[in-house]
Amino acid sequence: MSARQAGRRRFIKEGAALAGLAAAAPAVGAQTLVSGSSRTHVPGGPHGQAEHPLEFGERSRFVRARRIPITQVGHADMHGDPNGYDAMTPIDQLTGTITPADLHYVSQHQNAPEDIDPRKHRLLISGMVDRPLIFTLDELKRLPSVSRIHYIECIANRPSARDQTLNQVCGMVACSEWTGVLLSVLLEEAGVQDGVTWVLGESADKVGLGTNIPFPKAMDDVIVAYGQNGEPVRPHQGFPLRLVVPGFEGKYHVKWLKQVRALDRPYPTYWEQSHFTNYPHRGPLSYYLEQGPKSVITFPAAGRDPLERGFNMISGLAWSGCGAVSRVEVSTDGGQTWKDAEIEGPALRVAFTRFQLPWTWDGQETVLLSRCIDDQDQVQPTAEEHSAFWAHARPPHGNPIQPWRITSDGRIHNAF
Amino acid sequence: MTGASTMRFSLLAAVLVLAWTGAAEAQGSTYGLGRTPTDEELHPWDEAIGPMGEGLPPGSGTAEQGAVIYQRRRCGECHGPTGAEGPAPRFVGPLQMETYPAGTAGHAGQNFPGRGISNFPFAPLIWSFINKAMPLNQRGYLTDDEIYSLTGYLLYLNGIVGETDLIDARALREIEMPNRDGYVPPPPWKPGMRKAEVK
Questions:
Q1: What average pLDDT score do residues A136-152 get?
Q2: Which parts of chain B register pLDDT below 50?
Q3: Structure pTM?
Q4: What residues of B are in contact with residue A286 (Cβ under 8 Å)?
């Protein structure tokens, strides 16, 4: 029997054992993700219950912080599967620049694995290396670590005229402190051979998702993360290991990471072929990599209570996949004039950056806009510039300027 | 710590680092953590196959056999009796955009890239995905030969191979997929690249 067949048989045997386990305790994930009743919503609770109310810090019962589901059964992206689940970060409720892990958006296309036992999980570094290596989680934690704050944004996070709220316009993005080992450390331990141009990260999920990353990026700032916001990465974010590829689209940040291979060419995977290739009559389209500068005003914004006349601090979030935010400009008159907003708090590279601008609303109808300029002097495009560039490509990146129209009754509308 | 002792400490540290680096070069590893994988671990059964068939195992099948397996393994329950009906991704169809059905949240009437097998630029990657992921929630149950047969069946349904053509690693490598030119890897990436779409 070949090693490959032996591996498959072992997988089926262990999978059958796991399936039994899952059948015995089916409700934990569903309860946390879907119904999310505040009474039993216990972050990190293995059984969904705390023995004492102070064992976990719950949110106030007056705070209703929930992801917003956007999945419907039958959605083409869900493979017609009722268990597929996409849900947005409630970014209208965020303060500062960090997203709580339990509110970080999720996009689970029928692929979340069963419970992964971190004691059994392994990370394999293989391919064109002198010394293939296999690491336990404990071994990874013994290596030098980094903790860096980076946003992750789904490629599908783009405004549409149909969206009615801020969260619909811009909810598939979140920002966390990620802790782990730089991928470059692991690749150097294995000894990368000449001729390597790509690395392929692969997941232990149910469809073996994988993405290809340019080798220079892998050696630059990619993190094999085991920590998120001060605790182990949560199951729906890839426990026990997630690849964090700063500034690249969400799909690159492989959850439940089990293997990284050094290669001399990309090995296109299912999503990369089925969604990220184009058609002969439209010309070839390759992978997209890092995302450009983007910003959105989160107050005032559609989906909130009507705006009150008088003083209002305009507030929002800006980020760029290419570096740090150097400036954010805000217009309160539909783009006729622009003012520099104040950067409030840290402006780290490839991370949420909070901006604000004092404003007194006189009750007249107007349109609010913001635009991000990053440290490479790249400017967030207008809707017209954005659609002209992406006219022949799908799916486009989603960083056009977002307009909010405020009518004289104080109501706020998506004017994209 | 005084300035002098700081310097002594730095020198000592530098010497230690040099010694350590020297040792690391000899060993090839700085930290000595992790271990050499076994043969079985080195090539997991579900690792991705390369576009030119890199990693494809021995074995073969035909579309004719694949049609039988498609029935026996009940692939049609999700993909439709002929692979064209869904609701799971339809792998039969021309190169074209598909349209989200009415009632789809936020997307009704919008187009999205079709997922017909004919859209895949490399035939070995069809084998790879079936191997990794199918049948959904039961992955690992198909044998290598069964996957060759199913790959052949999907290619046959799209008019790319004949019903009795032998499908093996070599055949998959040599098949010229209709969307081969629809895929290009991006130009070399380096840190600090500017985006093409912004000013």
A1: 98
A2: 1-9, 11, 15-27, 100-109
A3: 0.86
A4: 183-186
Residues of B with CB below 8 A from A198's CB?
Answer: 185
Q: Decide the pairing of beta strands A198-203 and A257-263.
A: antiparallel
The model's pLDDT over A386-408, given as tens digits with 9 standing for 90+, comes to 877 776 555 667 899 999 999 99
Interface ipTM: 0.84
Can you list the domains of chain A with their CATH numbers?
Answer: 1-61 (no CATH), 122-282 (3.90.420.10), 294-414 (2.60.40.650)
Cβ-Cβ contacts under 8 Å, A160 against chain B: 106
What type of residue is A193? Q
Nearest chain A alpha carbon to B108: A75
Average pLDDT over residues A366-376: 97
Nearest CA in chain B to A205: B133
Give residue for tokens 């405004």: A159
Residue closest to B43 by CA, chosen among B32, B54, B51: B54
**CB contacts, 8 Å: B137 with chain A:** 206
The one-letter amino acid at A233: V
The whole-angstrom distance between A251's CA and the closest CA on chain B is: 16
Please give the structure tokens belonging to residue A94.
């965020």
In this complex, the residue of A8, A263, A390 whose CB is nearest that of residue B140 is: A8
DSSP state of A340: E
Contact call for B136 and A279, based on CB within 8 A: no
Quick check: A208 and B42 CB within 8 A? no
**Cβ neighbours of A378 in B, within 8 Å:** 194-195, 198-199
Judge residue A55's burial from the number of C-beta atoms within 10 Å of its C-beta, 0-12 exposed, 13-18 middle, 19 or more buried: exposed
Give me the amino acid identity at A197. Answer: T
* Chain A closest-CA separation from residue B83 CA (Å): 13
Q: Answer for the pair A153, A173: CB distance below 8 angstroms, yes or no.
A: yes
Q: Which of B171, B139, B138, B135 is nearest to B155 (CA)?
A: B171
Which CATH number applies to B59-182? 1.10.760.10
In terms of C-beta density within 10 A (0-12 exposed, 13-18 middle, 19 or more buried), how is residue A369 classed?
A: buried
Full strand arrangement of the beta sheet holding A106-108: A68-69, A85-88, A106-108
Distances (CA, A) of A171 to A148, A157, A302, A404, B109: 22, 7, 13, 16, 22
Distance CA A386, CA A380 (A): 9
For residue A79, pLDDT over 60 is answered with: no
Contact call for residues A276 and B120 (beta carbons, < 8 A): no
Cβ within 8 Å, pair A277-B29: no
Across the interface, whether the CB atoms of A258 and B44 are under 8 A apart is answered yes
Strand extents, DSSP E, A61-169? 68-69, 85-88, 106-108, 122-127, 133-136, 146-153
Q: Region A62-85: what's the mean pLDDT?
A: 67
- Token readout for A77 is 């992206």
- Max intra-chain CA distance, chain B: 83
Q: What is the pLDDT of residues B110-160, one digit of tens each?
A: 555 556 777 788 999 999 999 999 998 888 999 999 999 999 999 999 899
Q: How many CA atoms within 13 Å lie on the side-chain side of A315? A: 15
Whole-angstrom distance, CA of residue A45 vs CA of residue B106:
34
Cα A224 to its chain centre, rounded Å, is 15
**Could you read off the pLDDT of A296-335 as tens digits, one per residue?**
999 999 998 999 999 999 999 999 999 999 999 999 999 9
